[in-house]
Structures are given as structure tokens and as C-alpha cells.
Structure prediction request, 438 residues.
Amino acid sequence: MSTPYPSQQQKKKGGNEPWRNKERHYCAICNAWMGSDRQSILLHENGKKHREAVEADLKKRRDDKAKKEKDQSDLEKVFAQVNAAAAGSGGGGGGGGGGRKPWEQPTSSYVAAIPSNSLVGSRPPNQHQHQQQQQQHKPKVQNRDIKPAKASSCFTQIPTETKTVPDVNAGHYNIEGTSYLDGSIYAPILEEGMPIQLWVGDPNASDGEKRDLRSFNYWKIALLAKVVKKRKSGNEQEVSSCHVSYLQNSDDDDETLKSNVSPSRIRLVLGSDPLLPSTLEEAHLALLGGEQTIQVDDNNADGIVDENTGLSTWSTTAIRKVSSHYEQNQERKRKREHEKELAEYKEKKEKEIKARMMEEAKYANAHDSALGAYDVWSSATSAVEGKTAAYKGVDINKETKVEVADTAKSLSKGMGSVAFKKKKVKKKSIRRTSADDE
Prediction:
């Protein structure tokens, strides 16, 4: 009778029984299980996916650590500034209060001006006594020499960026009903692909000569290929230089590329292209970053206060102007940057796929040919013994032992000639003709 339980011999042979606890290795980075033998672990750890996952994990940890340290340092700076400001505002007067911390500063109290023996079992002071006590305490407060603390200078020394507002009446002119924008003034709004007019006349010509109607032929229609912005040394002001392509003559087929063109040799035709502003107000707002806030001084206006709510009427304090043309240009710019990043990402992915296919093909075809194939299962011990570690073919870089001179000597002696031996014909006992019978 067969028992439902496995015998001792079956247990020794076993290995697939569900109740057996097989040791497995778990990779926390890849979230994968594998055999606990060294070969399986090494194959997984040397794989490309595992190495990429390890690099990504290490990079993420480094970034998190750097961000945490930066946040901690910023927080410490803020605490230092707050403590310094509190020490400067509360510890400026008195000789002994300057070195104390903000929470240790002495506070003025009315109790200090009253004798201690009069606090218990005495009547409260009348109005005359109260005035005398205030006069006694007042000189102590007035005699203090209040000086600003040095620690509060951290707020006063912070440089504030003052944005210069360009003149509305400068940088544009009108010739026979067409408005032009001067490139030297409107250099911040220049961008790639914008149609412009390029001055090809005298580089030292004045603005009056460039704006003269007789110099109209010196202006060529061109296209901005690239705008390069650099900062001056020791100054926060940006300097722009442009790469421009244009046709020197109307019969030319090939464009001429001119590099490092100064914005003073460029002018824009107002409203001639969707990339250009259509009105002077839009051009002025584009110089200011697409918006302008005008503060309204309404202090002299008499606000009517509602008796029921205690609130005054609405009043205008600031006017904000925005440019839809500038927002459209910024949206197109963001779209171009997104398409560029997407193309770079696709190219990177294609390279990774090709590299992975090459690596897989290298290991998949390792057994097909003995020449030029890599041995996947080779180890470092075989290389130490003098064998090939990762290449199981013939090493063609080594010198051959057979020399050309030895081969030439053997051929000169006639040893190189080849002769074929003729097979001897034996007489057979088979009768073929009548003459064989005789």
C-alpha cells in the first residue's frame, strides 16, 4: 500500500517539492529574484540593466543629499539673519543688553518704578503719584543712546536689482508711413528666425545717415540665424551679437552668412512678421518682459467710508499691462525647446537600443564561429594560466613561426614541384574478347 507521504529516498532525490525552502537571492535595486549561486548573481550584477539601475540610484541619492544640505544651510542662514535682526532691534541700547540674546533682553515694566515695600498691603497710587513715577522713569529711557546693531546690516547690504525702464519715445522712427525699431535699443527681443534688415553700408555711419531715405539701398533683407548673448566682465549688462544670413544680390542663389553682427546694424520693420510686435506699445512691453505695472498715487482722493461696514470704496492702486504677442512668442519658444529635448531623448534611446542589440548579438553568436567570437563562460583563471580569457579564436596578432625565406629555399631546390603517380594496370581474369581464350 502506497503512503501519501514521500519516502526518505524520495526526499533525498527531491528538489522540486513545494515544502522545501530553497535559498534565493533578491536584488532590491532591480526588484528581481534569482538563484543564490555565485554564477547567477554575477550574471545579474554584470548585466547592463542592473548597472544602469545602480547608477541611477546612486545619482538620486547624491542629488537628495546635496539638496538636503543646501536646504539646511539656507535654513541656518535665515535663522542667523532673524537672530541678528532681533538682537539689533532689542539690544541696541544700554551697556549690558547688547550682548544678550533676543529672548534674554530686559523689558521695561511699570513695577520697576514702584518701591517693593509698597506692593503689599498698600493702596494703588493716585493720579498725582502716577505722574511722578512716570517722570522718574522717563529720564532713564531718554538717556539711553540707541544705536543700530551691526548685525542688522545683513538686510541693508542686500543689493536690489533696479530694472531700468526704457524710454517710450526712443528706439523707433518712421519713414514714409513705415515704423522701424532700432536694433541697438530692441536687442533683448531679437530671437532666432526673426526677419530683419541689415545695414551693409559704412560701419561707422551715424544714426542720421542710416535713417536717411537716400540710404535705403544699403539696407538688405536678412534672417537671424542665431543670437549670442554675453555678459560684460565686471558688469551685469548683456551684450548681444547676431549671426545673419542674407542675399548680397538679387540674382544670388546661395545665402551669405555674416557672423558677430552688432545690433546697431540691425533694424526691425514693425508688424512685418508674426514674430515681430505689431504696435509700439507691444514693442515697449516686450522690452519690459511682457508686462508693466504702473503705480497709481491715490492718497489725495477722499474715500467714502460706509457707516455700516466701516470699509471705504474701491480705489485703483496699480495698473498692470500685459502683451499677448510676447506671451505667444514665449509659448513658441517653449514649444521649440520641448521639441529639441524630445528629439535628443529619442536619439539617446535609439543609441541605447542599438548598443543593447549589439551586446545581445555578441553573446548570442558566441558559439557560431571559433574566429572572432567571445567566450562568455571564460574566467580570469584561464587568462592567468596563459589561455585566452574572452576570445576563443586564433590570435592573429602573434608572429608566425614559418618564415618566407625558408619557403623560398625549398621551392628553389625543386621540392616544391608536384607530381602525380600513375596507377599500375593489372591484368584481370575476366574474359572480355575472344583472344583472351587462346
